[in-house]
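Q: Convert this sequence to structure tokens.
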Amino acid sequence: MTHSVNTDGVVRAQPSRLSDVAEAATRVFGRQGFRRTRVAEVAENAGLSAGAIYTYVESKEALFQLVFAYGFGQLGQQTPPLPLPTPAAGETVAVIAEGLRGRASTPRLRAALTLEASEDVTVELSGIVEERYDLIAGIWPLLAVIERSAADLPELADFYYRRGRRGQLGQLRRYLETRAGAGQLRPMPDAMAAARIVVEVITWFAWHRHEDPDAETYVEERARRTVVEFVCDALIEADR
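A:
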């Protein structure tokens, strides 16, 4: 039994199963992006009939927004009225922006940017790398949905890439330049390229590793520790 049917023959949503719908939608949108995802496919993944899923969400757009409202914990303690309505223009991007502000902040990096030099650059850089790793590891299924849907949704692409990721890379670039200027990190020919390399290494092991056929090759904590030590060894002068 995947949904309830009243004596009048009308299919009713089971509020307790809204999480199943959200998790199924996260998996399917995360593999295929917004345009290629079919609502019926999400329904099947959630163990619902194609028609029953519309007792939970009014449309594909509502299903897409549910991914982030659920994933970022914005639904609250009480199940909202079902089916969830189609969001207004810009509403889903606002939900994503609010969620990322709460879950994707980088206080260690921001604090480091307020200083001209570090008392212990090894501890500082390790903390920055760990912070970024844990951030991505914690929300990578949502990031997969965003990245694989951005090509289909220009407003999302503008927010995520041009207003979001570029700013984060710029912060890391400034940090690397500042510490190199203070003689605490190895100077690089292109600090932005160095920042991108650091982020890509972290992202592969914190996120893309889980989607790789050889995912079982790596043990989580050892992989995390290796990434931290690899980045620090690459950027900190050997005689420090």
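The chain has two domains: 4-86, 104-235.
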